[in-house]
Amino acid sequence: MNDDFARLLSLKDTMTPWALRAVATLGVPDLLADGELGAGELARRTGVVPDALCRVLRLLTARGVFTEPKPGVFGPTALSRLLESGGRPISMGPWLDLDGAVGRGDRACVHILEALRTGRPVYERVYGRPVWEDLAADPALTASFDTAMAARAAALAPAVAAGYDWSTARHVLDAGGGTGTVLAEVLRTHPRLRGTLLDRAPAVTAARAAWGDTAEGRRCAFTSGSFFDALPMGADVILLVNVIHDWPDEHAAAVLRRCAEALPPDGRVLIAEHLRDGAAGPLLELDLLMLLVYGGRERDLDDFRALVSVAGLELTGVTETRAGISLLSCQLPQLPFQGIVGNHHQS
Ligand SMILES: C[S@@+](CC[C@H](N)C(=O)[O-])C[C@H]1O[C@@H](n2cnc3c(N)ncnc32)[C@H](O)[C@@H]1O
Description:
Elements: H1 3-11, H2 15-26, H3 28-31, E1 37-38, H4 39-46, H5 50-62, E2 66-70, E3 73-76, H6 78-83, H7 93-96, H8 101-108, H9 112-118, H10 123-127, H11 131-136, H12 139-162, E4 171-175, H13 181-189, E5 194-199, H14 201-211, E6 220-224, E7 237-241, H15 249-262, E8 268-273, H16 281-294, H17 301-310, E9 314-320, E10 326-331, E11 343-345
Parallel strand pairs: 4-5, 4-7, 5-6, 7-8, 9-11
Antiparallel strand pairs: 1-3, 2-3, 8-10, 9-10
Helix pairs in contact: 2-5, 4-5, 12-13
The chain binds S-adenosylmethionine.
Domain O-methyltransferase dimerisation: 15-83
Keywords: Methyltransferase, S-adenosyl-L-methionine, Transferase
Domain O-methyltransferase C-terminal: 112-313
């Protein structure tokens, strides 16, 4: 077999992604967290057929996810540790759980050809309603979505808190802030700041229960609502973390327009997203996922510049943080013009 053939075989692999999701859904990484177990015992504890599980674990062992120190006995690796409930820097378990919201989106992706033919998400065709309506109809799905987002947000939050000059800010509104992981970190590290968390009711309720009674929570208002409606007034920074990429241009511009309308003259909209410029594999994959599940897209700097200008804003600063996510600072047009667009790399 030549190298190209072997490479293509590995690229066309159907089973590794699903095997990985299957063991994450069954909680196998947590069961192996304290050491090795036999496939029979793992199957007993997860309620599956030993032979079938053993074959799945052997494939994943070949891929470096587990070890097989003795025939039929499996152990953890650094990769399976990332799938454990407390995996660091981010637990990937909620992102691979086939019973959760993200896994439900992944399962719709077999219809990729339809997305190519229509340019539209396939989620609605598979589940009968668009993704946000579908999640809203099932509290367990909503909670699993919020848990996955919070796991990612925990890895980004320190970079957002450190990557922007918050010294002159007074009040930050985190629009579509989920359960508030990023906002809580920003408020914790900047004790003069007040905050408002805005999202769908279940996320806001969960946020208030989780950290409403902390020092940060007591400086925060918890507001359920839609960022397509008028936003609460009073914030001089409006934060959008991984929100814009969920939406096609028309909807993304509408969210930004609501932000512009709620902003005081000296205020800022701070968009925290990965930029598609020179993007490596994971972001390109996410770009397709955005198309197939949400109808959104990943954008480069020029895309963002054009998008914010449609919404009546100017892109005036870009900071790439140590977490790889970029902070795009936008403001209302100033007369005379005071903004400078540039790349400032955080040390
Ligand atoms: C990709 S998640 C990002 C969450 C959070 N900013 C983070 O970084 O973890 C997008 C968020 O937008 C929220 N969302 C979706 N539609 C919304 C709407 N119409 N109004 C307010 N929030 C909405 C979702 O509930 C979700 O929390």
